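Example for reference:
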Amino acid sequence: MIDAHVHCFPKELAQRALHPTWYTESSESDGTIEGQIELVNREGIRRAILLNVATRPDTMADVNAFAVANNGKAGVIVSFGSVHPYAENAEDEVARLYSCGIRGIKFQPTHQKFSVDDPRCRELFSLIGKLGMMTVFHSGRSARTKEFPILPKQMAKCIDCFQGNPVVLSHMGGMYLTREEIDQAASLPVITDTAYNAHHMDQTTFAYAFERFGVDRVMFGTDMPWADLAREKEYIERLHLSAQELDRVYDRNAERYLTECGALKSD
């Protein structure tokens, strides 16, 4: 099993990151990299994609130092870096991350406060595409702000920049999307993950989104440490997939896309 969507923090930040919020009152681990490794070992997860977010240009260096330091840790962590599109050295940072063995970039526009269809992002996105990296977007709307949603109509304007390389619209295409928007997301050349869907999407809508994307474009993800692992898996199990289909969602799809971008070596 591969968990395509987890988060960890340096020890000095983990407690603050896990402070009870409006969307969760508990966590599956202590939010540290050590806690995540203990969790994946306990749950039989063979790889976990660690998604880091540089919320501001001045945090990029520290965020990416953490990403690089933990890439490959304990043989289970696949670490992605993050850049802020408005940082003066954003493109240089992508190239540096690539040289350090990082093969994926995470964006979270609602926190980073940018629009994905801003023309200023195109050169950066094109570099990521040229390097063949995987790109993960925290997608959809936020319950806390109406600013900077990541909607399919916006992604359609910039998806060409990635030149066919893996682009993940996380959370089954996006949080709080309408069915029409789910259709739009699924029509794009993107993949998705199941992270945190038990908390923001009812089972019927989840099944609809899964059908629209298809079994080959869905990766299992949790959003650890905040998610309830058993509940996230239950949403998938209720789809009554075959053993082969479950294997694709839980493991093989992520393995294929990680291999495609060079984050995992092919056998």
